[in-house]
Sequence to fold (1269 residues):
Amino acid sequence: MMKKNMINYPNKTFRPLCFALVIWCICAIGCKQDFLDIKSDKKLVVPSTEKDLQALMDNSSVLNIQCDPSLGEQGADDFFLTDIRWETMTRAIHRNAYIWAVDIFETEDTSTDWNRGYQTVFYANTVLDGASKLKDQTAAGHLRGQALFYRAWAFENLLQVFAPPYIPGGDNGRLGIPLRLEADINLPSVRATVGQGYRQVVDDLLEAASLLPNLPLVKTRPSKVSAFALLARVSLLMGNYGQSLDYAGRSLELQSSLMDYNSISLTAANPFKPMNDEVIYHSEMVHPTSFSNTRLNVVPELYGAYAADDLRRGLFFFNNSGTLAFKGSYSTLPFFFSGLAVDEVMLIRSECLARLNRGQEALDVLNSLLVKRWKTGKFAPLAPGAGQSVLDLVLTERRKELVFRGLRWSDLRRLNMDPAYRKDLVRTVKGTVYRLPAGDPRYVLPLPFDVLRLTGMANNPR
Amino acid sequence: MGVMGAADFITAERAFFERGFYNALENDLSKSVLSPVVELLFDGKAGRLSPAVVEEELARLSSNDLRTEASSVLYRLPVTAQYGLSLSGGARHSSSILNFGYNSALSVVRGNSGSRFSLNAQHRYQPVEKLELSVGVFYVRRLGLDNGVGIYDLGTGGYPYARLLDAEGNPAPLVRDFRTSFAAAPGAGLLDWQFRPLQERELRDRSDILQELRGAFGLRYTPVGGLDLSLNYQYQGQWNDQETLYDPQGYYVRNLVNRFTQADGTRIFPMGAILEAQMGRTVSHNLRGQAGYKWNAGKRHAFDVLVGAEAREVVAEQGGYKLFGYDSQVLTFADRLDFVTRYPTRPRLTAQLPTTNVALASLTDRFVSYYASSSYSFLDRYTVSGSARLDGSNLFGVKANQKSVPLWSAGVAWNVEREGFFRVDFIDRLKLRASYGYNGNTNNGITAFTTARYSNDPLTGQRRAEITSPGNPQLRWEKVQIVNLATDFGMFEGRLGGTIEYYVKKGRDLLGRRTYEPTTGIFSPDIRTLVNYAATRTRGLDLSLDYRSMGSGVKWSASLLLSHAKDVVTDYQEQGSLSTIALISNSTVPPAPGRSLNSVYSLPWNGLDAATGDPLVSVGGNLSKDYTSYFQQLKPEHLVYHGRGNPLLTGFLRGGPIYKGLSLSITLSFKTGYYFRRQGMDYSVLFSSGATNADFGSRWKSPGDELLTNVPSIPLALNSNRDAVYTLSELMVERGDHVRFQDANLSYRFNLRGKQRFGIAGLEVYGQGNNLGILYWANRLGLDPDTPLAIYPLSASFTLGLRATLN
Fold:
């Protein structure tokens, strides 16, 4: 009896159990096929399509807004701070950058100027990776052009602050910046030489220029105009005046219109609109406390250089209860525009012409810019005075036109190599006199602590 | 850590003023916020007020106390009322239950209140003996009115000497976005520009309605003995409507209208109310199928198997709208606004109109699980068991095989009291258990591929994407190995019962955040960069005891829960990824093997300088004030290690007497064996955000004070490093041990035997108090270790309730 049960009982009841199991398995497998493949958040993507990659390139908060380094501009000679305004800046880095201290970071572990630049590089590399996998070659080329420009833009800006200046015809084997060319974040960062850095920027830009459309859809995006404008800027820094002149010309061929400052309200608090007609490529500097309109004071030497009928006197500057503050940004204040604009390209062209001994052409270009900057009918074309060269004139006007564009620091660095234009900077704070002689190693800023600690890269000698 | 009184705060502001910290703001065109005291001091300095008037005014302000005023004007004793009614009935093949509940609550913040209505209906039906069907419906509606103003909502203007009511008892203005000299006299053509928090309470109507509907359907079929098949389905829908109506007289509207009023008096921002609405909908489906089989072979062998599968989907969607120039009387609003033009704004600069954008969201979570378990026992004494499970979810950005994690365990159990040799009279029940298992853990923050999130670009209006995770192809699951030994026991004829459980958990490949060097382009804390970085071992002992007295008269019951857990790091692979100061201020010091993952560290304290009251630091073996070098040379090994940041031992004790229908129960809880950090005087934070600290009163003032106090003097120039030397010092670390009076419950159940009226079968009234205070603190300052930064201690709350049962 017992034995019989032991044999039969399981068979009888395992039948429905097996049945249930089979049903369950079918259900489960049927469900599983793509049940778990649905996206958890509609806004999330693994960026791989043209639309996704373009959306990464259209992130202006990462690629255009307050992203360019300002540590250089903070040390340039266009402004000063009163003792109390200097002393009450809460971040040591802003106080130290102003007095060219050997150690500027103090306890700040990381540097926005560095981080934002390399964030751009990471986005660009991510898009370069993605674009190489696209089937549509036109779309891939278009994306590649944009990414190469953004990366070159970031490298160029970082080179001006964290690497020694390029020595035309000299030895450029000193340590420059790390050139990260891959998106893989596990690859180590290694400093390349100054020469390699500039070479990379030029090569990337030349390829970008061949891929980009003539004009951008929005001015936060690069185009042929901006690629050539940046090539002109870099070539000027490298002392390749003939090439720089050529690139400036190609950029101006595509976009050359200037604003007539007579049509702009002198009383407006923010006279220039962002992405106006003159802007080629929109970008802004990291904004330090020292640039606030209650602190930054334009040096009298510079302000005095604008003639009474020069509209820039009233459009660029204003008296903020005793502080001579700056309002001439081609962006929304308080942020300072540091992108590319037609006036800069004209000044590059003018300077190259002057350096190539084509003085009259240089003056013509310069005058065609300045006539739009003066009150109508008041401008008399400039000509060099006694003992003055056309280049003297162009360089003076360059500083006046491109004030607080983030260009003065690199101009000081390159002009200091020329005995005719070298300048020793002096700042006095609370009775202490600080000096930055031409060619001083402090023209190259130190690398941030976190980068040094985590990569083991060598720091810049100060 | 308490707050500064008005007099102390004024002393600090005067000191900052004398050192020139506010000079940059005196003629600021943006009219940045200045406190009433600083305005007075500027008036005095410029000769607009005589020194005597300034002093008199300051003395008047020193006598104010915002906290005292707020505790009566902004806060009250919270009260909750609860009512319940339950109906039940049944016949031979079916049974039903119906419950209603209603709660209403007045929150501690005046102006905030809420109510909740719930209905729960269940029906069970058995058409034939082997089949059972069940249906349930549950509905709840919650309404919250959220118009209160708390002390944290006062913002910048909440200075300790601020007044919420003026001398006549009318709502008083507080500094908000601009300095008072500007906001109080906005000029012709502008609306009043002042912010009066007590008036705002009346001028805002914010409601939040949450409705939830759950429906459940169950089917159970037992075709033959031992076999049990079941299928369950549950639907859950949640609808959330939040609406805020800002009255045109309120500050929100007035401020926007004024900011966009043009030089010629044109108002760009529409007058009228602002209506903000947000709607959310969450719908979930849950399906579970299960088959179980129990088989007894004779009296000696018992065998059971269970297999099942479960699938779940939760879809959450969100949207909303915002209307400007809204008229709630006739339902019109302004819809032809120019959001593109940059208009001149007051006091200066230009801006675009704020957009009416409301972010849209659509989130889907899916989950599938397969499980099986089986056990065999012999003679009802010895049991072996095993179980396995596979959980999968729709993690985004991971490889297909990373979407599911397996877990399994195996165990044995022994019912000792069934053994013939076991003869201990007072023990009724004794079971020994042991198990061993493996868990896999995954985390929705991990991605193997680069992921990005879409949004609208605010500058260009283009569609844009932001990288949210760089992706890490080497990611693995977290693995946790668990060994568990336990005993369950019962003694003295059921009076005392309990469980003692000892476990060891070994975690491998634990996921943690990596700090990448920023040249990689990854530096924002918003980017998820989880890596497998550590291994830990946790040993724990849990004890639970229940006691019940028997017999008639007063009955006692008590239960005690004790939990002891000690985790130590056994391996750590992310050394030196942050600077020491960043580590200590974020409490992310790399855990040394042998210490808890959550350890509390601090900076060694070296006292104050005798001449200046500056904190001293040790640089190269000498005491110094060179804070910069100090922090640069600081290494993790220089820090003081205090101990764990999580309690080593926690416990609950609940119990009380019952006499007939009356019962009292109280709950005490305690935590011990851990440390927390309190807040210290930080002059930089005081200056920039007005966050105050009661330490200020005992600061170093003159030479000799360094013997009596450790609180640094007011600095000549702000220096956040100098502040950090004190606020991160060992002085700020306190023992967390405490005993808390969690709650007390008193209830009375009416004896209705023979007196039933209107079908009422049961009636109960009860009162409940929560958060009744701390009975013991180990720290000397009387700080609540759970909320050491709170301005007010956690407030007690009380509930009264009535519950009726109908037949």
